[in-house]
Specification:
The protein is mostly beta strands and 1340 residues long. It contains 3 helices and 115 strands.
Length: 1340
């Protein structure tokens, strides 16, 4: 704390010293006036003077403070009498000016009193008792008022301020720190309270100083002193500064105000078992020496191995009851203290030589080798390993491949003591390498000796280059020259005999290619047994039969009849294995079964093998076949396709080693042709390649080998005739039956089929509203959603299952019905299209009209018109059923109206309608496309014609519109619909009256009112809306009978689709009385009790008939519809009313007020704006209001930028710059555009005529004569006289005083004072020098 106090005192002392230094610097600045060398003409500057003036050495001659003015010749009073001496240029340097009333050199000549106007600067001449006298204006003195009184002579400005003399006045320029007219008021810099945090403000000259309390500092005491600056906290603690204090956050283990106290962690005696506790910084440690324990707190007993009881560098392992020593080889004993003979157990492997190692002290001299442990002394043994091996017991093979001996991409294979390089086999052209390290270029394949794209493999053996060929499938031989592919063309075989003595193997392998799903690949056998390899449904199938044992059957479930190559192997061992070696085979392609042969038995005992088929009777050579067990002979069709690489045991079967005459329809190679390549199947039939032929699977209803033929359709109802077809069934079918057929029709009703007999109908299917329906006697009717009567061909199927019948369209299930199980019985009849009984047919939908084709009962075809080659299962009875599927000619007579052209379709027609007509028969005229309505109206299509609708604008005046029925309205008028918007609370909308019937729709007290009395009712119905309608919003209204079919009904009012509607209590009739000769008034009545509507009203619709505001207009189409209300009033209706408030979008800009006029809007624009939306700024300058100036347009105003010399709002007034002029000495002020100028009297000059004019000289000759003023000299140049002006003057006559201040020579805000041929700068207090160019602070 003492250190902090000392620190604060030091800061306070330094602050006071700094203030003193700053104050002295300001004082020094005030005393440096003489540093600028301002005293001239050998004058001497005295710093001690109060006004810092420069007393001159010759005060008689140099009168200025700066000793810079010329000597005054009038000091000696050279003029006699009352004459006044005036300084003037020339040899004399002065002129004598006489008092008023006298003249002459000695002023001894009397003049006429005040006659010549001798008084200057506006002085007034007065006659005195002795002589005239001048009464001078303020600020001037002298006999002639010629002297400008220097108000600064009395030094009115205080505190070092600069005084500037003016006309009849002066101005003081204060130094910083003072203010007031005479700079006598000191500025209180403390008035703004600049010092913060309770500091004391000291006001000084031009500045202030703050005395800061603890603990603050800074110019304004805004900075708090950081008590942590001296780092008072110890031992790594964190110091936190506070106001006038600090706090220490101690590190763990330390306490105290400054964290100076170290906590004793050993006070709790944490060390156990006599361990010594050593205190540390926020920690402690336990020295467990001599305690027998170890650990952080000496809590763990020392392990036995810590005493190192094991000898000879053995490894010690701690145990629960002691320790165990793990000895090095050659040592034994509980502590590995005994040296043993290590070679006695023959430890070295792989032929390694064992060398015993022993200590010299134990065994004396002997063979020694370095131990793997690198111990200085060791006992045991060492193994001397043969080349290529290493390890303690020579058990590790040295990797000879680690040095990468193989070159050119060869792969190194390590072996004991050796390595082998596997050189890359590159099938691409280029050099191939071989040899021990793959570094020798192999030349065996240079000539490409392998045929049939065989791969040549070169090699180098005993220095000789050679090769071998890897043959592709189908070839063998050293050069791949032998073909191993055989082509089987059907109904053939290949007989192979084998010699069991020479045949050492019984396994079979071959490749095959075929499209047959079922075929014989191989048969081997005799009476004792057989083996058959065949294709069944595309799967490879193996069956083995031996004597009376059970047949072994193996099957690989993978389709192989796809025309691709497939490999199959059969191996015999303890188990028979069938394997399909096919890359495309997925799943299990290998199957096994126990072998049926005994241990000595084998299929090799079968001497005869047949490939591709079996002969009939004898072989082609005439040799009788061996007797075969007939039950084992397969009946599989002969193979058609190709066999390849047939391996039977060790024998490879080729065309060359086949015994002549032992084959039939077998050839070398593989001849295959894609029989489907020419696309022989018509009508999208699917073609199957059968190797030597093809087969077509036809889409219904096509048939034949090439799907070219088609089942003949039956036409029902040709030209609206009635008929049917009947199929009599002569057999009984099972419980699962499918009945299907193609159906085409446009008629939405008709009987499709009935199954039954004369006494009972099992099943019925018919068309109802174009949809299929199905029914059985014991089920409910099924009516599907599928529409069949669209003129397209549809395949319909019935799947009859036990207890259920399903109905399909293609594969789409349309539904089912539950029915007891029944069967198609022999004697049942299938009726198609109708029944013999017309009445029963009508009950079941009527006779069918359309086409039915390709009826099938399961897979049996029921043909209407079978030909001689067809295999029709049942003959048909046909009544008015014709062949084919032609359509009726429905264009005769022409069904198209309005000139439409008919085009015949199948059982239908299409009308090409003229423009502006529509409908299937062109019956609908699109009237609105003809543009029948006048401008401003919307065309609306109505039945039989059109209406022109619009929203009308009503202004509330007498503008009623009268309608009347045309006498052709026959419909019942049960409702009224219309829309409107208004802002009036009472108005009439619709009125009609015919005693006693009455209709009125109006607005009363802001609500819509509907009144009606009609029919035989004695009551007048009245409905009032539940909401106000005078809000200017569009309202849509519907007035309707709740029961439009009744003679009298309650009425309801629905507005803006709100529910529930307002409903009347009483009932009344309809509006049918309006169909008579009744005037219907819309918008108000001329003599009505309520004013007419003011607002918008849509076209009113009464019972669907419009009250159009547009009568039939000349030049437009007349309305063709029969039922009309005619406009009988002759007044024109104003249309174009908007449903939305025209002001809703805020169209008026710039604050304009919007008024909704229903059909548009009107903007009342504020001042300065115009246009429909107040979007145009009115240019107030268009009227040229500025007389002497330029006009600038503004919002609702303008501004005139006046030309120089003019002022006023419109620049209409000239500026009189002479109102406040400073012209002296009686000069005349002349105002002009840029200011004013002073026209001086003859004896004065200068800008304000304040200087006595210098002597003038007359200059001229006989041609020119003028005067040079201001001391100018007359001279002649090039024969012409001219004035040579004195310094400080210019102009032709030297009449212009040059303003040396015009160039703003004074810097840093200095004030320029124009003098004769020079200027003087009055500088700011901080600057000095002739041009205020020097900063006083830089001079200290």
């Amino acid at each position: 704390m003492a250190l902090g106090t000392t620190h604060c005192l030091l800061i306070l002392y330094l602050g006071l010293a700094l203030l003193t230094s700053i104050r002295n610097s300001f004082c020094n600045e005030n005393d440096t006036e003489c540093l600028s060398h301002s005293c001239q003409n050998n004058s001497t500057c005295k710093d001690a003077s109060e006004d810092h003036s420069c007393p001159c050495a010759d005060t008689a001659l140099h009168l200025g403070k700066g000793c810079d003015e010329e000597p005054d010749p009038c000091v000696s009073s050279p003029c006699p009498g009352n004459a006044t001496c005036v300084s003037a240029p020339g040899e004399r340097g002065f002129l004598c000016r006489c008092p008023p009333g006298s003249s002459g050199a000695a002023c001894d000549t009397a003049d006429e009193a005040c006659g010549a106007g001798p008084c200057q600067h506006g002085g007034v001449c007065r006659l005195g008792p002795a002589q005239p006298a001048c009464v001078c204006p303020p600020g001037f003195a002298g006999s002639f008022c010629e002297l400008d009184r220097d108000e600064c002579a009395s030094s009115p400005c205080r505190n070092g301020a600069v005084c500037r003399d003016g006309a009849n006045g002066y101005a003081c320029f204060c130094v910083p720190g003072y203010q007031g007219r005479h700079c006598d008021v000191e500025v209180d810099e403390c008035a703004s309270h600049p010092c913060g945090n309770g500091a004391t403000c000291l006001n000084e000259i031009g500045r202030y100083a703050c005395l800061c309390p603890r603990p603050y500092s800074g110019v304004n005491c805004e900075l708090e002193i950081d008590e942590c600056w001296s780092q008072p906290c110890l031992h790594g603690a964190t110091c936190q500064d506070a106001v006038g204090a600090y706090f220490c956050d101690c590190a763990p283990g330390f306490l105290g105000e400054r964290c100076e106290i170290n906590t004793d962690e050993c006070a709790s005696e944490p060390c156990l078992h006599g361990g010594l506790c050593v205190d540390g910084a926020d920690s402690y440690s336990c020295n467990c020496t001599g305690s027998g324990f170890t650990g952080t707190h000496c809590e763990t007993p020392v392990p036995p191995c810590w005493s190192k009881p094991c000898h000879n560098n053995a490894t010690c392992e701690d145990g629960a009851d002691g320790y165990i020593c793990h000895c090095w080889p050659g040592y034994t004993g509980a502590q590995c203290e005994t040296d043993v003979d290590g070679c006695s157990s023959h430890p070295c492997q792989s032929g390694g030589q064992c060398v015993a190692l022993s200590s010299e002290t134990a065994r004396g001299r002997g063979a020694r080798r370095p131990s793997p442990s690198s111990r200085a002394q060791a006992s045991g043994y060492a193994c001397v390993c043969p080349p290529g091996l290493t390890g303690i017991h020579c058990e590790e093979d040295i990797d000879e491949c680690s040095s990468s001996p193989c070159r050119n991409g060869g792969t190194c294979e390590n072996s004991p003591g050796n390595y082998t390089c596997l050189c890359p086999l590159d099938t691409l052209p280029g050099a191939q390498y071989g040899g021990r390290d793959c570094s020798d270029i192999l030349l065996g394949c240079t000539d490409r000796p392998c045929l049939h794209h065989g791969t040549c493999i070169p090699h180098l053996q005993d220095g000789q280059h050679g090769f071998r060929c890897l043959c592709p499938p189908g070839y063998t031989g050293s050069l791949c020259e032998t073909v191993t592919t055989l082509s089987f063309e059907g109904d053939g075989f290949l007989w192979v005999t084998s010699d069991s003595a020479k045949d050492s193997g019984c396994n079979i392998a071959l490749r095959f290619q075929t499209v047959q799903p079922t075929a014989l690949l191989l048969f081997r056998g005799d009476r004792d047994g057989s083996m058959t390899l065949e294709l069944l449904s595309g799967y490879v199938h193996l069956s083995v039969q031996v004597s009376n044992q059970s047949e072994v059957v193996l099957l690989v479930s993978h389709d192989t009849s796809d025309g691709e190559w497939h490999s199959v192997e059969v191996t015999f061992a303890e188990a028979v294995t069938l394997a399909l070696l096919d890359p495309s085979c997925r799943g299990t392609c290998i199957t096994r079964a126990p072998s049926p042969f005994g241990r000595g038995g084998s299929t090799c005992a079968f001497q005869n093998s047949f490939l591709g088929g079996l002969p009939e009777g004898t072989t082609p050579s005439g040799v009788a076949l061996l007797d075969l067990d007939v039950s084992t002979v397969p009946h599989t069709p002969s193979f058609i396709g190709c066999l390849q690489d047939i391996q039977m045991g060790s024998n490879l079967i080729t065309a060359e080693n086949v015994t002549p005459g032992a084959s039939l329809n077998v050839g070398a190679g593989c001849v295959r042709q894609d029989q489907c390549e020419s696309q022989p199947c018509q009508h999208r039939g699917r073609c199957f390649n059968l190797w030597l032929s093809y087969r077509c699977d036809c889409y219904r209803p096509y048939q034949g080998p090439d799907c070219h033929g088609e089942y003949v359709a039956g036409r029902f109802g040709q030209d609206d005739s009635t008929g049917y077809a009947a199929f009599h069934l002569d057999e009984t079918y099972g419980e699962d039956v499918t009945l299907s057929m193609f159906v085409r029709t446009h008629r939405p009703s008709g009987l499709l089929l009935i199954v039954g007999h004369s006494a009972y109908r099992h099943l019925r299917v018919w068309l109802e509203r174009g949809r299929l329906a199905m029914l059985t006697p014991s089920s409910s009717k099924l009516l599907t959603k599928f529409v069949l009567s669209d003129g397209n061909v549809h395949l319909i199927s019935l799947k009859i299952k036990p207890n259920k019948i399903e109905l399909y369209q293609l594969s789409q299930n349309l539904g089912f019905i539950s029915a007891p199980t029944w069967k198609f019985q022999s004697g049942d009849v299938l009726y198609i299209g109708g029944l013999p009984d017309r009445q029963e047919t009508e009950v079941n939908g009527g006779f069918f009209k359309g086409c039915i084709q390709d009826i099938r009962l399961n897979n049996e075809s029921l043909e209407f018109f079978p030909n001689s080659t067809s295999k029709a299962a049942h003959s048909a009875v046909l009544v008015n059923v014709t062949q084919g599927c032609p359509g009726d000619n429905v264009c005769e007579p022409n069904p198209c109206y309005n000139g439409g052209v008919c085009y015949a379709l199948w059982d239908d027609f299409s009308c090409a309608c003229p423009a502006n007509t529509a409908g299937k028969t062109c019956q609908d005229v699109r009237w609105c496309e003809l543009g029948p309505c006048p401008p401003g109206a919307r065309c609306q299509q109505v039945p039989g014609g059109f209406e022109c609708t619009a929203n009308a604008v009503f202004n509330g005046q007498s503008s009623e519109i009268v309608f009347r029925s045309n006498g052709n309205i026959t419909r019942e008028l049960t409702n009224i619909t219309f829309g409107f918007r208004t802002r009036v609370a009472n108005a009439e909308i619709l009125h009609a009256e015919k005693e006693p019937e009455f209709l009125n729709v109006s607005i009363r007290d802001s609500r819509l009112l509907f009144q009606l009395q009609s029919g035989n009712s004695f009551y007048r119905l009245s409905l009032t809306s539940s909401q106000s309608v005078d809000d200017g919003v569009w309202h849509q209204v519907t007035l309707s009978m709740t029961d439009p079919l009744a003679q009298a009904s309650r009425w309801q009012m629905e507005m803006d689709h709100q529910t529930p509607p307002v409903t009347s209590v009483v009932a009344t009739g309809s509006l049918s009385f309006l169909k008579e000769d009744v005037d219907i008034c819309v918008g108000g009545r001329a003599d009505g009790p309520v004013q007419g509507l003011q607002g918008c009203l849509s076209t009113i619709v009464v019972g669907g008939v419009h009250l159009s505001y547009f009568e039939n207009v000349r030049g437009f189409l007349n309305k063709p519809q029969e039922e009309q209300f005619l406009k009988v009033s002759v007044n024109t209706v104003a249309t174009g009313c908007l449903q939305l408030n025209a002001c809703k979008s805020n169209p008026c800009l710039h604050g304009g007020h919007c008024e909704d006029t229903y059909s548009s809007h009107h903007c009342a624009c504020p001042e300065g704006w115009s246009g429909p939306r107040c979007e145009r700024d009115i240019d107030e300058c268009l009227s040229d209001p500025c007389i002497h100036g330029n006009c600038s347009d503004r919002v609702a105003a303008y501004h005139c930028r006046c030309e120089p010399g003019y002022t006023g709002v419109n620049c209409e007034a000239g500026v009189d710059h002479c109102q406040s002029h400073q012209c002296a000495s009686g000069a005349t002020c002349i105002s002009h555009a840029k200011g004013y100028s002073c026209r001086c009297p003859g004896n004065f000059t200068g800008k304000f005529c304040r200087h006595t004019r210098l002597p003038s000289a007359v200059c001229g000759n006989e041609r020119t004569n003028f005067t040079c003023y201001s001391g100018g000299n007359c001279t002649e140049a090039q024969g012409e006289p001219r004035c040579v002006c004195a310094p400080g003057f210019a102009g032709q006559w030297c009449e212009e005083d040059v303003d040396e201040c015009a160039s703003n020579p004074c810097l840093h805000g200095g004030l320029c004072h124009d003098l004769l041929d020079r200027f003087q700068c009055v500088c700011d207090v901080a600057f000095t020098g002739p041009r205020c160019e020097m900063d006083r602070r830089n001079l200290c």
